[in-house]
């Protein structure tokens, strides 16, 4: 057994007595590695003999009577209502609701916007600030208006 | 664990009463390990209040391949007496392990031990029991 790493050796020391498959992956690894060592086979036969002796221990009738209703003492399962009001679940629910609201607000903003929003806003504000006296006739082609606005108003 | 059936029954009843009390407060025990853990602490409390036996350091020897034949010669009561005389937490660890009802994780939870401590308690229990077996049922007698 000393050939096993310390962690696996500890697990092998409390390996399941019955040959049933261990539910734990680490334990299964430890048992499969320990099975290559002779000492482990000796340990398992020792443990099986001990467990057999323990099972053969007579139980007094008055003790048996105490455990007649053993099923009654099983832990009760948590109801879905109690689970739903658990602080951790409530916190997760609130966080998800906040994320959903923020995402909806962002989506709404995107729905009312278009790629040239900033330029259009600047154009409108520029037009609002311009007095009629500042207006001057522009004699140019419609296609070159973009260059004109860029040069004059940086639009 | 208590060494007396009447005290064990009292512990059993007290544990059930505590479980019923918790259930009445809408906080029932989460699992069956709670019962074993609670009963164990109550037993240890009862044992601590009485005169303590001095635990001499037991001899130990490596587990023998002849052990199954030696164990077959024993009466279950002899094993129970040996286990009840072992020091804590070895006594509880060995008792739970050989009941063969619990996984190592459940035993760690019931006994509030780390894996290394649990495995050490069980491994030393095996070696000490083997030494006691050799003295009680010599290998020649077992064969």
Q: Segments of chain B where pLDDT lies below 50 for 5+ residues?
A: none
Q: How big is the Rg of chain B?
A: 17 Å
Order of helices and strands of chain B: HHHHHHHH
Count of runs of 4 or more consecutive helical residues of chain B = 8
**What is the rounded distance between the termini of chain B?**
32 Å
How many β strands of chain B by DSSP?
A: 0
Shape of chain B: elongated
- Residue share in helices of chain A? 55-70%
Number of alpha- plus pi-helical segments of chain A: 8
Major pleated sheet of chain A: none
Largest sheet of chain B: none
What's the average pLDDT of chain A? 81
Our measurement of the CA-to-CA distance between the termini of chain A, rounded to an integer number of angstroms, reads 82 Å
List unreliable stretches of 5+ residues of chain A: none
Name the largest protein-protein interface in this structure. A-B, 38 and 43 residues
Domains of chain A (count): 3
Q: Globular, elongated, flat, extended or rod-shaped: what is the shape of chain A?
A: elongated
The helix-strand sequence of chain A is: HHHHHHHH
Strand residue content of chain A: under 5%
Helix-strand makeup class of chain A = mainly alpha
Task: Describe it.
The complex is a heterodimer of chains A (155) and B (143). With 155 residues, chain A is mainly alpha-helical. Chain A folds into three domains: 6-66, no CATH class; 84-113; 115-155, no CATH class. Chain A has helices at 6-13, 25-34, 38-55, 61-66, 80-84, 87-111, 117-129, 145-153. Chain A is elongated, with a radius of gyration of 40 Å. The mean pLDDT of chain A is 81. Chain B is an all-alpha fold. Chain B has eight helices and no strands. Chain B has helices spanning 5-24, 32-49, 67-72, 76-85, 90-99, 104-111, 115-136, 139-142. In chain B, α1 packs across α2 (32-49), α2 (32-49) crosses α6 (104-111) and α5 (90-99) crosses α7 (115-136). The longest helix of chain B is centred in the C-terminal third of the chain and has 22 residues, at 115-136. Chain B is elongated and about 60 Å long. The relative contact order of chain B is 0.14. The mean pLDDT of chain B is 80. The interface between A and B is large, with 38 and 43 residues.
